[in-house]
Amino acid sequence: MRKIDDYINDANHLIPAPHILPQLMPLLSRSDTDNSRIVELISYDTSLTGSVLRICNSAFYSRGTAIDNLPQAVSRLGSREVYRITVAVTGAVTLSANQKSYGVEAADLWKHSVTAAIAAQLVAKEANEDEDVIFTAGILHDVGKIVLSAAAEGSVEKFLKETSGGRSLVEVEEMILGCNHAEVGARLLERWKLPEHLIAAVRFHHKPAAAGKHIRLAACVYLGNFIAYFMGYGYGHHALSLSSRDETLRILNLSSERLPQYMEQCFNRLKQVKSLYNLRS
To answer: Among 139, 176, 214, 275, whose CB has the most other CB atoms within 10 angstroms?
Structure first.
């Protein structure tokens, strides 16, 4: 754990803590939440205020009347959609740096994470799991790569050699750095004081069977990650390990025949999201 904390401390200036997420998540779990509290939390954040207003007035949400204030925007969109916007905007800030050690250009990790989050949310809906928690975990599942990319800047050639030789990325990270990005990401979320189940979904997104009571959440994120790669929204110089796919489908009692359907649904949803968040292919 000390090694992981050292890596995070060294990269701390790259990883802004999303102060609003731990406050918004409990509000969504209550049926009597007052929108004014959500407005209050968002109103002091320039990026979030601008994004909520812009998306509210987009062609997808517009009802012919322009909205010029946050309370009306939250009312039109609904608290759950505002939460997803908040997660997406927070993720964009956190995940948009270049990561030379992983062969990742700026925004590639963000695009992968958005796709994985959408796919995981589709899986969660069918598996009767919390869609909002899974969406958040999907956005943040690879956040540990930002930390480890900074730590591995002097080992790019070694990363390339080992991953090209057939080792999984997780194995190479552990061999070179002594830990992997899932462990680091989970520790970062602990330091951000996010909920235990969300942390577990990130920590075990490569090995959901080890997630204990949070096994189904981790399984949803695993499949979201899997689907994102198969749709072409992968990145870097490593291949996605497929060894846990069948086991993960069994955990969720889902058939492999559903995977192409998830991909199609995810593709259609992604077109909308690209428009809302100005993403490019």
So the answer is: 139
